[in-house]
Amino acid sequence: MAKKENGERRLGFRNVVRLGYVSLFTDVSTEMILGVLPLFIVRDLGATAAILGLIEGASDAVNYIFRVIAGVLTDKIGRRKPLVLVGYGLSSIAKPLFALVGSWPQAFAVRLTDRAGKGTRTSPRDALISDSVAKSEAGKGFGLHRSLDQLGAVLGPLFAFAAIPFIGIRGVFWVSFIPAALGLLILVFFVKDTRGKVRQGTALQNVRTVLNREFVFLLVFLGIFAIGAYNFSFILLEAGSLGIQENDAPLVYAVLNVATVLIGLPAGILADKAGKLPVLFVSYLVFFATSTGGIFLPGFPFYAFLLAFLFGSYLAISETVQRALIPDFIRPELKGTAYAVYYTLIGICSLVANSIFGFLWTNSGAAVAFQYSAVTSASGMIALVIFIAAKRK
Fold this sequence. Notes:
Blueprint: E1 4-5, E2 8-9, H1 13-34, H2 37-44, H3 49-77, H4 81-94, H5 104-132, H6 138-175, H7 177-190, H8 203-210, H9 213-226, H10 232-241, H11 249-274, H12 276-296, H13 301-325, H14 335-364, H15 366-392
Antiparallel strand pairs: 1-2
């Protein structure tokens, strides 16, 4: 139900749920592919772990660059939905093209295009979610969206697992367009847009306004943690090392996404009640446990599912809480720009983290790579504790 906060009428959770269904169908499409893509790139297209790290790091960087552009632009035009639509449309068209690739550079190009689409939609979509609900319910709003989004991420790998024996991996790439098209239809006909205040200043002026003292300190501790935050691809690669076969990799990825579905909404509600920063600390602790498991767990397939569940739990908490945290530090009409700055930092750190992690994995072994991330996550936890203490004073 729509409600008012400070005299401003909001669209309410119904709009968030509709956006959640858009993300659900899009993620069915995306995760049908991503559950098998890392092993497809390494085993079928001949890439190394270092190349995989470069692909994922560069793809994340492109993703975040477009988040910056779209975040600044959405504040300039005072609209959210047009950019959300462009982003979802680009990704939907790009993903089936994986069926045509014959080498890892071609797969790299398709991955970049898909991530450009994701980047274009993300900042405006997050701003639209924030616009739709009261600030006191932001954690619940982002948690609800995250859970619906990740429900698609559970179904996608399961569909891929069921379909691969009949149509093969490349057939799965083609079929991925169907759920993506359904998501686009929901977005066009059911999601409502908000009209915000049009910013007259330059993009640089808006960024300077956003970068107040507290927000800068927030970015610092987020960055310390993020320079060691590898992405899901290495969990799937580690699953292969633990004895998981290529055709079974979607099941590991499904477990990862089940964790995000189960934990995303409760984490958001808890963050609204207990405080976002303490709950964010829990996510860092879970990531530290995942990295420690990567160092010490022996080669047994069951442990691949354990690592996947831990990593999914970390993602559910951190991505829900961090996205809900950003509006606490800036003015409402600059939400898009604030998300753009936040995603700039995360994108740069993602490129660094995945590149270093992949390099260490290739040249020194998986255990050394996980040790690097364990150290950076511990440093991030210390920085977060310092930030919480300073903020309370």
